[in-house]
DNA sequence: AGATTCCTTTGACCCAAGTCAGCTATCGTC
DNA sequence: GACGATAGCTGACTTGGGTCAAAGGAATCT
């Protein structure tokens, strides 16, 4: 059966069977939206900013605010000003809130338990395996690439991991320059649950040419097609900026990366800079 | 990772990523409920009864009626009296309705397509595989067993398939007696999407003993734990009826069934009837 | 110090989804 | 042909979930 048909079939099965169950399980009198919110707040140890919540749950600011008021009224959470920045406010679960959260956790676990209960040990293992695979691939297929300021926390984390990895791999160590202030450079990050999982940038390098920089894919995410997506995305950005050619350099030892570039239509070219860490140079016409 | 944790993780991934996508994709101006309804109506070739729709979508009669009115107003469906029974009404898609349905189908396929698009061929195959497995197991884990009159259509279909299978397997053919009128007998069916996938019954056989009859699991569903669930369920029914012992007979050639009984704690006993098709007899204390 | 921007809240809305009770037309049965 | 059951429809109502614009306080820039 082909991927699309299987996915559609699974989707139907899943929403019909589990979606319904979930609603009836997690709806403890409380509407589902409030429960989900409680999940997020309860899981955050030291409290969580209102803005962070908004990002995570992708809720309207006004709507979220109202939901928070409701949790406060029910005595499940307290919203207090952030000490560092008085505009911001931080949500913290009260004792009752933590209890309600624990209850939700329990219900959610019960639901899962009950779902796998009819299965034998072996089937459970098969299901676990299948779902773990599907989880990785679905996550990979749905991460959103978004532009990011290279000095923002998520970008810094991505670069830190990129550098650490190269440093570990290169015999001579790796000491990169700084991205911060390049005019016209655009950086892109892919995040999953708030953590960066892939990163890359493109910066103008002459009239017609753009250079791709700092391509990185988190190691747990390799083999899920993120690299080629990022590459295509960066090429598209370069195209939009009016460039007709992209170049990039890399270390000879990064064989997966080189394979990726070749698959994407990049051809080897002469050295075009004096980057001491690069021995392989590629270019592609857009 | 254990099954429950994986399932919970997957569930979050799935509802967050795909649920959201789906809503934005299938919501073509039309509310989701109407779209789902259109899906059902468009898929039914010769029209579908209002009651059938209600069963399938599990909607309130009043609500469904209103939704249908809306489809009629939009020119997507016509609701006409059933010729055979004037109380009933039948919903048929108009040309415009079929078009809208095709459009929905297309969008749904596009969504799936887009979702797998970032994946490589190999990843797609892995995902397909994983989802097909998960689909079978989730379906199996969530089928509901419910009591059924052995003369009801679903029960008849189950028995027909049961008999056909035994007939094909037994060298001498198989010609069963009739279930219909046994006093105190209870039959149970497991249905998935309206089709029976497993069947079985339990009937009193003396003071303390009940007999399990007609245990059958559809062949596409074997190896998913349905058999043992059905068996446990029937034992529970026997227990509720005050029996302390269940017996059953089977053909020697049904090795999977025999393995199932043995795993469930059944022990071989002497022949207790003159069923010409049975050579193996089992009993279990409750 | 004043202007501007950022973050959150508040008020006023909107629509989808669903429930419930009562109604009407039809069917099957006596 | 009367009567109860069945099938579906209508009106009135509730709730959940969500949008939008304006407001207000706090930070930041110049």
Automatic annotation (TrEMBL), chains A, B:
Residues 143-286 form the N-acetyltransferase domain. The keyword Translocase does not apply. Residues 1-136 form the HTH marR-type domain. CDD domains: HTH_ARSR, NAT_SF. SUPFAM superfamilies: Acyl-CoA N-acyltransferases (Nat), Winged helix' DNA-binding domain. Keywords: Acyltransferase, Transferase. Gene3D superfamilies: 3.40.630.30, Winged helix-like DNA-binding domain superfamily/Winged helix DNA-binding domain. SMART domains: HTH_MARR. Pfam families: Acetyltransf_1, MarR_2. PROSITE patterns: GNAT, HTH_MARR_2. This is Helix-turn-helix domain-containing GNAT family N-acetyltransferase.
């Amino acid at each position: 059966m082909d991927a699309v048909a299987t996915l559609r079939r699974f989707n139907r099965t899943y929403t019909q069977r589990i979606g319904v169950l979930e609603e009836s399980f997690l709806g403890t009198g409380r509407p589902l939206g409030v429960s989900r919110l409680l999940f997020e707040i309860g899981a955050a140890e030291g409290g969580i900013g209102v803005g962070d919540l908004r990002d995570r749950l992708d809720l309207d600011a006004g709507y979220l605010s109202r939901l928070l008021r409701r949790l406060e009224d029910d005595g499940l959470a307290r919203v207090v000003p952030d000490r560092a920045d008085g505009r911001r406010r931080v949500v913290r679960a009260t004792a009752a809130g933590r209890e309600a959260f624990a209850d939700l956790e329990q219900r959610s676990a019960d639901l899962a338990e009950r779902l796998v209960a009819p299965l034998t040990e072996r089937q459970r293992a098969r299901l676990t395996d299948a779902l773990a695979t599907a989880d990785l691939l679905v996550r990979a297929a749905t991460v959103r690439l978004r532009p990011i300021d290279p000095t923002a926390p998520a970008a810094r984390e991505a670069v830190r991991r990129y550098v650490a990895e190269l440093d570990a791999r290169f015999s001579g160590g790796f000491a990169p320059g700084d991205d911060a202030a390049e005019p016209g450079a655009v950086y892109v990050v892919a995040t999953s649950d708030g953590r960066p999982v892939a990163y890359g940038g493109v910066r103008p390098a002459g009239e017609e040419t753009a250079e791709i920089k700092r391509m990185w894919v988190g190691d747990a995410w390799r083999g899920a097609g993120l690299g080629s997506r990022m590459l295509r995305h960066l090429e598209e950005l370069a195209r939009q900026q009016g460039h007709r050619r992209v170049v990039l350099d890399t270390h000879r030892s990064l064989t997966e990366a080189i394979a990726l570039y070749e698959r994407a239509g990049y051809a080897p070219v002469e050295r075009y800079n004096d980057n001491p860490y690069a021995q392989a140079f590629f270019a592609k016409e857009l």
